[in-house]
Structure formats: structure tokens, C-alpha cells
Design brief:
The chain is mostly helical. It is built from twelve helices and no strands. The chain has one domain: ABC transporter involved in vitamin B12 uptake, BtuC (Orthogonal Bundle), CATH 1.10.3470. Helix 3 runs antiparallel to helix 4 and helix 5 packs across helix 9.
């Protein structure tokens, strides 16, 4: 492992993977506990529609994917709050819309299909300095929002009581959706549209099986996310596997071990 760390491209991949894992692990507990797994898929496809729009307009894809995904995240929350429709229904509508728009933009972006495939599957080993700055900026923004963690956790477990205590639950829903969108967009470049939702679901799902409190669940999700990144990147280098897929397979392995522990111990 020490020999591998001597390669600059692996150093960038490791740093990017750990930063994305920090984002995914911190948000994963909220995604799992609030049952927002489908939202991760919906926003990932919204990001791809934004990327396709960037390819069509011959602009930097992530510059357009960011506002596009952010707009979709806020629109989903707005429709859910104002229409009375369930959240998964609102997500389904914008999921389909994003896929359709992405297909149209991609069909018109002649000569850029190869670039689009790169965003579909991502590549941690092709991370550049700009990608690291983008992920790092979103991590710093998350640190600035850390004082809201308690209120978000409160509303996650008892939304009605939080409303009764005059916690601005609606505003926090918008902020959480917006931050999920930002995290997904910066992660798409290194993980890929098809796998990025796994970073928001699997660590939290494994932690949910073992954690006794929400704080404990969050810490376990971070531990699982970091461990899977280290294991997955090392396996990717040794076995010549796609880096993003290797990390997700490592996450799935940790989930399987957590499930077996819970199943054979009769619960937590």
C-alpha cells in the first residue's frame, strides 16, 4: 500500500475518494433514516441531464450540472410541500423529466458521447486538481452547516414534535435537499452517475444495522465510507478494476458483514 501511495494520480484519487466518502458518510444517515434513497437516484440523473446540457452547449459540464441539479432538488421539495403528493411521487416526476432532457441534450451533443460515458461511470483515478477543489469546497460548506445537525436530526426522528417546537423544518428540508444536490454533483465526476447514489445509501444502511443512536449511526457511516474507499481503491489498483465500482463493492461487502452480525446475534 505504501508503494501505491507514491504515485501522484493515486494520491489525488485517494484524497478525492476520502472527501467524497466524508460527504456520503455524513449525509448517508439522513438519507437512510428519512427514506431518501430514491432522491439520490433522482438527483444523480438530474446531474447527468445538466452534464448533457453542458456537452450540448460546449460548456464545462459541471458548471451547468450544478445549477440544474440544485434547481431540481429545490423543485422536488417545493412540489412535495405544496401539492400534497408523496415525496417519491415528486421525485419520480423529476427523475423521468431529467432522463428525458438528458437524452435530448445528448442526442444533440454530437461528437461528445465519449465524454458522457465518462460521467456515467466516473473515474477516481482521473481526478484533477480542479475536481479536488470542488469537492473540498462542498466539504467546507458542510462544516459551515454543522450547527444545524441537531435540528436536522430532531426533525428526522420526530417531524411533528420539531414543528411544534418551532424548528424551521421546511427551511431545513430545502437546505438538506440543496446540499445533497451539491454533494452529488461534485461526486458524479469521480464516481459516476450510475454509482453515486450508493455513496449516499450503503454506508448509512450498514450503520443503521449496528448503530444504537443517530449520532452513533452517523459515525459508523463515516467509518464504513472511509474504510470502503481505502479497501476499494487498493483493490482497484491491484486487480485493475474500475475504481468507483471497486469502492461500491467494498461498501456492499461491509454491509453484508453488518447484516450477518445483526442476523446471527439476534439484533443490535
Amino acid at each position: 500500500m505504501l508503494e501505491v501511495l507514491g504515485y501522484p494520480f493515486f494520491q489525488r484519487a485517494l484524497l478525492a475518494g476520502l472527501l467524497v466518502s466524508l460527504l456520503g458518510g455524513a449525509l448517508s444517515a439522513f438519507v437512510v433514516q428519512r427514506r431518501l434513497s430514491f432522491l439520490g437516484d433522482g438527483l444523480a440523473h438530474a446531474a447527468f441531464a445538466g452534464v448533457a446540457l453542458g456537452l450540448f452547449l460546449r460548456e464545462e459540464p459541471l458548471y451547468l450540472a450544478l445549477p440544474f441539479t440544485l434547481a431540481v432538488a429545490l423543485a422536488i421539495t417545493y412540489v412535495k410541500e405544496r401539492s400534497g403528493l408523496s415525496e417519491d411521487t415528486a421525485i419520480g416526476v423529476f427523475f423521468a423529466l431529467s432522463v428525458a432532457l438528458g437524452a435530448v441534450f445528448l442526442a444533440k451533443a454530437r461528437g461528445y458521447v465519449g465524454d458522457a460515458m465518462g460521467y456515467l461511470f466516473g473515474s477516481l483515478l482521473a481526478v484533477g486538481p480542479g475536481d479536488l477543489w470542488a469537492v473540498g469546497g462542498v466539504v467546507l460548506l458542510g462544516l459551515a452547516l454543522l450547527p444545524l445537525w441537531g435540528a436536522l436530526a430532531y426533525a428526522t426522528f420526530d417531524r411533528e414534535l420539531a414543528l411544534a417546537d418551532r424548528v424551521p423544518v421546511g427551511l431545513h428540508d430545502y437546505l438538506l435537499s440543496a446540499y445533497l444536490a451539491l454533494a452529488l454533483v461534485v461526486a458524479v465526476k469521480v464516481v459516476g452517475v450510475l454509482l453515486v447514489a450508493a455513496f449516499l445509501v450503503i454506508p448509512g444502511a450498514a450503520a443503521r444495522l449496528l448503530g444504537r443512536t443517530f449520532a452513533g449511526m452517523t459515525l459508523l457511516a463515516l467509518l464504513f465510507a472511509f474504510s470502503a474507499t481505502l479497501l476499494g481503491l487498493y483493490a482497484s489498483f491491484l486487480l485493475d478494476w474500475p475504481s468507483g465500482a471497486s469502492v461500491v463493492l467494498a461498501q456492499a461487502l461491509l454491509f453484508g458483514l453488518a447484516f450477518l452480525k445483526t442476523a446471527f446475534s439476534g439484533g443490535k
